[in-house]
Here is the input.
Amino acid sequence: MSVTDSPAARLQALFEGHRLTPTQRRIAHSMVRRAADVPFLSSVELAELAGVSQPSVTRFAVALGFDGYPALRRHLREVTPAEPVDEAGARNEYQQAVEAEIENLRHLAEALADPAPLQRAGRLLAASQPLLVLGLRAAAAQAHGFAYFAAKVHPDVRLLGEGGTMLQDRIDAAVRAGASALLCFALPRHPREVVDTLAYAKEAGLTVVTVADSAFAPVAKVSDLLLPAAVGTGLAFDTACAPMLLGRVLLEAMCDDLPQAQARLEEFDTRAAARGLFVD
Here is the structure.
């Protein structure tokens, strides 16, 4: 099955071109995450899945051009092939969380079947000197990890890992120094400060590349290029294996457009060996 034939891709295509409210985007996000199951869910079950009211699901279906949710579900059953039933037996909550993350990684692999968006993002990040990397609260670890590795191959990486009034000052300073792009990691719950900061960055002339949990995340409207990677929600705290892996793949794409990347890595290895930095 190609990426354009996947249930998630068909749902994404269905939602494109519609102006959705935040609640409706939440429903759409939940449907994409459970694309194979959605055609068989009642409106009440979908409402529970998305954490919204049942009337909100009905209004969502109408916003997409259907008479109501039953009509939307009939449409989805017509275009979505039945998935094989899992007969492996009941799994505990920890196993289910791991399997949900594996499914998120499968969706990411399908999305990367078209490498053009990732390659474009890599070019934008490589060309920006300095390069700003933003990630607050839940996304701080993702941004820190990306910035740590990016600094080994990119000449000037500036991490924005803490909120506050200094954020805009640091963006202004980077723009004066020649920055052309900002990479943002945005994960739920989405801080208002991140949305405001991205809007400010765009006004300052930066191209905003965002790794987010969904194409319907609140940061989508203030991003020039959004790369989605779903998070797991089965545990008390969200899991973000797919966004982390997408960040590493994005690093690879950026390295492809940095002519000195390999030389810088070799130089780092030489210095690390001379300093006895690592024990292995």
